[in-house]
């Protein structure tokens, strides 16, 4: 195993981490798949510029520097994690993709979904205490892809590829993340050991050749038969791979008879009106074969779960142990690729349980309840107050994952509200839930020895999440801490800010302090040589409230001598996230579209990321009209049509939410804060 990078990076030891974990990962995969690595050598190559994060050439994996080089003294845990997972992903491709290659492009998810799923399994092997597959997978893969796949402009994971131009289209987050989520669901309902045996058989049979999804289904069904189970994997999974979207499972308890449930499934979609506008959608009756795990709980414990297979639109089932005082929970540990809704009485019982003793419900399900409730309310399936009531329990939550799930739904909601007159009420409510745990955990001490101690991962990530929420939603204490840390750095020219919170401190400092802080960080950006540090310094500059500085930064972003081409997109997107910069970034995007499109049009994910980042928080009728006008004028262009279709749908949903639900949300918040 060899690593190639720029001489100064090699001298600094920035490639050591990647080299060490690659050796361990080869051993892990050889043991897991029971198929030895197939070549005499494996080279890793770090390059300054590359259209993708990485590329798995057989025996020669190429990485953009940010995804492989690591400077332990200044890299944060999220950066370490990012580098680790990209490497785990690419090494997995030496088996899934290189050794066994999909027959045709329509099944590209067979290699990308597996590599993405194994990012979490492989990282768990390197860091057993981090619980990636059981926990972090939920927020970073499942919750993330359900946002995309809940749009009417989504598409099935297996797509027809008839000509060369179709190929780029199949490499998107649906292939990667939905692929991974379906594989995880499959591994869980089969049982992990049986699943592993099926994969070993699949790789051994098809090595040095090609395989299609049916080849995989057959091997997995065979493994189940040998285990004495008669599930036909193809029969279950074909629905999930050939239909777009995912089901919303609604569980309603009988008013009169204990133990009886009515379970129904429907296609979850954010814009409920989309079906009436689009006859194609309205005519399809989406049905899935759903492995629904359920458990019954009360004040002190939860029963073990049972799996109910749901395949009709509506079914009745009997569940033991359910009475007036007990609650019901579906999709245990969120192993299934669907959302769950309940009758309001059951939601109330769950909220009550969280308030009294949240630990009866698993960490994964606490995160899942938060994500499902906010998204159900966003789409109008649930009253706006239910998710806000759920997060009241967070003031007692000591685990990272539910907080992370909450951040991921609170930030977009904040962006929907950040230009309204009443947004301070929302900030105040969120801060009320955040403050107790923030005060308890406090700030990290600076550790410059660069040791990433496993045991501290959850604590440090939780601390980081709380600081980010506190500073974002206006905590005076958090603001003061950030200002003090930056002032000390400026006066002593020694950066003692702990690496894990540098991005938060830099951004908060730039947004609250004078222009000289912006100039100071701009200077540091130019003089810094550590890739990870450069990235966060650049993003911090987008946090300014000064529109002149934001415009200056936008214009400089296209000068590749100043800002690397792959970083320019992040600059534009981060300016768009800043309420002071949203219009500036949107205008810049429209004015410079020709340049941006010629620069990034060919690169997978780049255009999608840019279009989505600049438009996702537009939420007025005027902005929607501007977006439609822009698309009419520029026609989307090759490769970006689907990105614009999705953007229009998201902005329409934002406008619709404002019209229908904003007042309902503020009304509840006013009452809640005054009582």
Précis, in short:
57% of the residues lie in helices and 9% in strands. It is an alpha/beta fold and 675 residues long.
Query: What is the terminal-to-terminal distance?
Result: 64 Å
Cα-atom radius of gyration = 25 Å
- Characterize the biggest β-sheet: 4 strands, mixed
Structural class: alpha/beta
Which outline best applies? globular
Residue ranges: pLDDT <50 for 5 or more in a row? none
What is the percentage of strand-forming residues?
5-15%
Percent helix:
55-70%
The neighbouring-strand order within the major sheet is 1-2-4-3
Mean pLDDT: 89
Number of H/I helices: 29
Counted beta strands: 13
Describe this protein with a few key phrases.
4-stranded mixed β-sheet, alpha/beta, 675 residues, 29 helices, globular
Provide a descriptive summary of the structure in words:
- The protein has 675 residues and is α/β, with parallel strands linked by helices.
- The chain is built from 29 helices and 13 strands.
- The strands form 4 sheets. It has a 4-stranded mixed sheet, with helices on one face.
- Helix 4 (109-126) runs antiparallel to helix 5 (132-149), helix 24 (565-577) packs across helix 25 (582-591) and helix 24 runs parallel beside helix 27 (606-615).
- The longest helix has 34 residues, at 641-674.
- It is globular, with a radius of gyration of 25 Å.
- The termini are far apart.
- The relative contact order is 0.08.
- The mean pLDDT is 89.
Itemize the secondary structure elements and their pairings.
Layout: E1 2-4, H1 7-12, H2 16-33, E2 43-47, E3 54-57, E4 60-64, H3 77-93, E5 100-102, H4 109-126, H5 132-149, H6 166-170, H7 173-190, H8 192-206, E6 209-211, H9 213-226, H10 233-242, E7 247-253, E8 260-267, H11 274-277, H12 279-283, E9 290-297, E10 306-310, E11 314-318, E12 327-330, E13 339-342, H13 344-357, H14 363-378, H15 385-390, H16 400-417, H17 423-441, H18 457-472, H19 476-492, H20 502-512, H21 515-527, H22 531-540, H23 547-557, H24 565-577, H25 582-591, H26 593-600, H27 606-615, H28 621-634, H29 641-674
Parallel strand pairs: 1-2, 2-4, 5-6, 7-13
Antiparallel strand pairs: 3-4, 7-8, 8-11, 9-10, 9-12
Helix pairs in contact: 2-3, 3-4, 4-5, 4-7, 5-7, 5-14, 5-16, 7-8, 8-9, 14-16, 16-18, 17-18, 17-29, 19-20, 20-22, 21-22, 23-24, 24-25, 24-27, 27-29, 28-29
């Amino acid at each position: 195993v060899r690593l190639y990078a720029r001489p100064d990076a090699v001298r600094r030891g920035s490639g050591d981490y990647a080299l060490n974990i690659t050796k361990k990962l080869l051993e892990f995969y050889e043991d897991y798949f029971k198929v030895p690595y197939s070549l005499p050598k494996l080279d890793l190559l770090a390059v300054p510029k590359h259209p993708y994060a990485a590329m798995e050439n057989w025996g020669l994996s190429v990485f953009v520097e940010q995804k492989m080089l690591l400077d332990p003294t200044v890299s944060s845990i999220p950066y370490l994690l990012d580098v680790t997972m990209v490497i785990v992903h690419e090494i997995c491709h030496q088996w899934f993709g290189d050794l066994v290659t999909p027959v045709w492009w329509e099944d590209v998810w067979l290699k990308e979904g597996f590599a993405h799923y194994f990012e979490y399994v492989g990282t768990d092997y390197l860091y057993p205490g981090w619980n990636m597959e059981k926990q972090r997978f939920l927020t970073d893969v499942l919750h993330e892809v359900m946002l995309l796949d809940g749009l009417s402009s989504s598409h099935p994971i297996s797509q027809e590829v008839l000509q060369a131009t179709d190929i780029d289209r199949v490499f998107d987050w649906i292939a990667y993340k939905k692929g991974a989520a379906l594989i995880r669901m499959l591994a869980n309902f089969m049982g992990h050991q049986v699943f592993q045996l099926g994969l070993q058989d699949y790789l051994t049979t098809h090595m040095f050749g090609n395989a299609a999804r049916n080849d995989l289904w057959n091997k997995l069904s065979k493994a189940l038969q040998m285990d004495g189970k008669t599930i036909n994997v193809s029969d279950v999974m074909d629905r999930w791979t050939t239909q777009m979207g995912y089901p919303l499972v609604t569980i309603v308890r009988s008013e009169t008879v204990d133990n009886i449930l009515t379970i129904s499934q429907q296609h979850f979609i954010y814009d409920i009106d989309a079906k009436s506008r689009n006859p194609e959608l309205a005519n399809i009756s989406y049905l899935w074969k759903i492995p629904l795990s359920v458990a019954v709980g009360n004040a002190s414990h939860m029963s073990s779960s049972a799996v109910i297979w749901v395949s009709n639109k509506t079914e009745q089932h009997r569940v033991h142990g359910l009475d007036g005082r007990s609650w019901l929970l579906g999709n245990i540990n969120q192993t299934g690729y669907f959302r769950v809704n309940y009758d309001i009485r059951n939601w109330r019982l769950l909220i009550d349980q969280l308030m009294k003793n949240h630990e009866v419900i698993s960490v994964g399900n606490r995160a899942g309840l938060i994500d499902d409730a906010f998204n159900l309310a966003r789409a109008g399936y649930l009253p706006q107050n239910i998710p806000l009531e759920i997060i009241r329990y967070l003031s007692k939550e000591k685990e990272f994952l539910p907080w992370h799930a909450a951040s991921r739904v609170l930030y977009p909601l904040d962006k929907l509200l950040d230009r309204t007159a009443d947004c301070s009420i929302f900030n105040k409510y969120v801060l009320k839930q955040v403050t107790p745990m923030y005060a308890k955990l406090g700030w990290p001490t600076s550790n410059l020895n660069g040791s990433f101690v496993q045991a501290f991962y959850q604590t440090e990530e939780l601390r980081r999440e709380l600081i980010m929420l506190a500073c974002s939603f206006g905590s005076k204490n958090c603001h003061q801490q950030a200002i003090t840390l930056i002032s000390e750095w400026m006066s002593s020219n020694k950066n003692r800010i702990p690496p894990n919170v540098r991005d938060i401190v830099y951004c908060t400092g730039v947004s609250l302090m004078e222009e000289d802080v912006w100039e100071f960080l701009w200077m540091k950006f130019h003089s810094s040589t550590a890739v990870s540090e450069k990235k966060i310094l650049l993003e911090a500059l987008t946090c300014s409230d000064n529109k002149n500085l934001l415009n200056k930064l936008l214009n400089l972003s296209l000068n590749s001598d100043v800002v690397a081409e792959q970083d320019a997109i992040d600059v534009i997107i981060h300016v768009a996230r800043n309420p002071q910069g949203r219009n500036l970034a949107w205008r810049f995007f429209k004015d410079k579209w020709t340049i941006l499109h010629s620069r990034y049009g060919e690169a997978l994910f780049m255009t999608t990321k840019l279009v989505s980042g600049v438009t996702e928080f537009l939420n007025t009728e005027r902005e929607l009209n501007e977006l439609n006008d822009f698309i009419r004028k520029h026609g989307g262009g090759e490769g970006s049509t689907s990105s614009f279709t999705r953007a229009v749908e998201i902005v329409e949903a934002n406008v619709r939410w404002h019209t229908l639900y904003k007042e309902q949300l503020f009304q509840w918040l006013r009452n809640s804060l005054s009582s």
